[in-house]
Each structure stands twice: as structure tokens, then as C-alpha cells.
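--- STAGE predict ---
source: upstream dedup step, 1 unique chain passed
mode: sequence only
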Amino acid sequence: MVKSINSRDYNKWRSQFPQENSSIGFVPTMGALHQGHLYLVQQAKRQCSQVVISIFVNPRQFNDTNDLENYPVQLEEDFALLSKEGVDIVLVPSIQEIYPPNDTTSVDMTSYAHLAQGLEGDHRPGHFQGVVDVVSRLLTIVKPHKLYLGKKDYQQLNVLKAMVKKEKFALDVIGVPTQRASSGLALSSRNALLSEEGRVRASNIYEALQCAKASALHGEGLDMACAKGKAFLQAAEGVTEEYFLIANRHTMSINEVGNPEEWVVFCAAHVEGVRLIDNVEVFD
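--- STAGE serialize ---
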């Protein structure tokens, strides 16, 4: 059975494993787990002697209070899934453990702020600052050797890689490919908020991304690739585009995107009032 603990008990557990004689993999989550999260866990188990999952709904990364209030919480179901995967420890810290009273400090992102601009950075003000703040605090508690993150949140992955380097955390960041339903829909905790028909409609996001990717691979150029993907998405019933853009996979720039080998196609859209994001690498 999976063991759920707070940060104080985690420190006792962690002391059993000296840094030089263990390999701890860490998967930070906000719960409402799905097969995408479990794939991260499986990758961690293949490479590490112990695997730690955290479940913490981070208020700092929500710029919409309704989004925070509606975020699904299902701890018992999450524990059951993790138990089947043979997870060692689930860290479930309280808000006071992560953000002690009167502690309003934030990580300085100045040196990599450019990675957080555009795309999600434009549409969710303060989001990446909140992500960096919580992950840095979780890493300080967990002290892992490897951090596992999904490529579905591609911009976030790049921002966190930069944070880990700048803050000198002694660990490897592992980007794991996006897991998808048979329809192509990227697995996400938010999918639980969609009806069956909504999930079918949402699969058009992936089809639009693939349309743009195919255009790029045929050498049709940035503008044409974007135009074809956007046209496909806009023709899809029940899907409202927020943005559809190509950016450089390293710099996240949408202005200086480099060669097609460096392109990633990004999309954010709304289905049944649920905001969904996805991306595909042109050359994966």
C-alpha cells in the first residue's frame, strides 16, 4: 500500500537513503492522476531505486480563481493508482508547509524570463512564477536525483530546466513524451471535466497540430503550416482557439523560430468551457 506523508515525515524517510548510495526519482503533480502521470512514474521506476510523487494543488500558478476552485481533487483514487504502480512515497504537503505564513518570497527568474514569455506566459500571467516557486520548494524537500516532467507542458519544461540549472539543484531533468488517448487527445486532468462528446471534439486539437506538422515537413514554411493548422481547428465544431503558434523548441521564441528541426507547434483552445493545451515537435 502506498504511504502518504507530510514533509516532516518525508525528511525522516529520506534520511535512510544517502545521496551517494541511492537514486530517487521525483514526479511532482497536482493530483487527479491519469495514465500520463502513471507513465512518468513508470519511467522513473525504470531508472531509479526509489520513486516519490507529490500531490499539491498550487494556488500560486492559477491566475483564474474559478480554475483553481474547479480543479479536480480525488486523493483516494490517486492513492489507489499509485499503489498499483508500486510507488514508494506520496508527499502530500499542506499549504503551510510549502508557503509558511508571512513567507512571500519568490524565485528570481530574471536570467530565464524570456522562456516564460509568449504562449502560456502571455495568456496566464504569473503562472510560471508560481510553478517555479512551488517546484523549487518541493525539490528542496524531496532532494531527488531525477525530476520527471511531461512534454505536454513544453514551455513549463524549459522554464523548469532553466530554474534547476540556475538554482544549482544537483539533479537531471527528464522530459517525457506526451501520452495520448486513441483519438490523439493529450491526457490531462482537465479531460475529466469534459463530456464524452467534448473529448471527441477536443481531439481536433491534436489533428490541427498534426496538420501544421505535416505542412512543415513538406517544406511549406512557417506561415503556411500555421495557417493550415489554424484553419483545421477553426473548422472544428465546439472548439474555440486561444492561440495556435510555432515556436523554437529551445528559446520558446515565436519571432526567431530557427530551422524546422527546431520547431514546436503549440495550441491552446477551449472545449465546453475547459481550457486545454497541447503541442507537437515537428521533428521528434
